[in-house]
Amino acid sequence: MSIEYLDKTLIAISENGQTISPILSEGIKNYLIGIGGTICDDILNEEPERMLRGQLYPEALATLNKWYDEEHIICFFTSRTEEYRKYTKIWLDKHGFKYHRILMGKPRGGNYHWIDNHLVKATRYQEKFTNLINKQVTIQVFDDAQHQYKFGYLFNCLIY
């Protein structure tokens, strides 16, 4: 399933008479998956010689390929820099990962806080892939009554 095909399945929407960013069909998710420490050994950019030898986490391969086959979008989002795209792609392909995109250059350091006008759910990987469950947690949101009313119910994060 190509990314071009998926782009054609996006639903056009408008707000106040203006076309805005399209959304995915109901039930389809955009998964952004880290690489180092999530699907394989955590390898520093400063040690590129290890990238092709990184140890695969087998449950990651099975889970992500299942999601791909269910027509979800699989996008790897890594702190590896652009100069290591070739090695990253070789490793992913060698191990049989099915995916749509690789985004390089994720900021290093963790402690991510993503702000966007679209629904964002987050799952912290902690040593194994399992089925995702619903769990309510406290998160930080903007102190804006309009946003709390309009979007407050959307911030149920999926965590392990």
Automatic annotation (TrEMBL):
It comes from the Bacteria. This is Phosphoheptose isomerase. It comes from Flavobacterium psychrophilum (strain ATCC 49511 / DSM 21280 / CIP 103535 / JIP02/86).
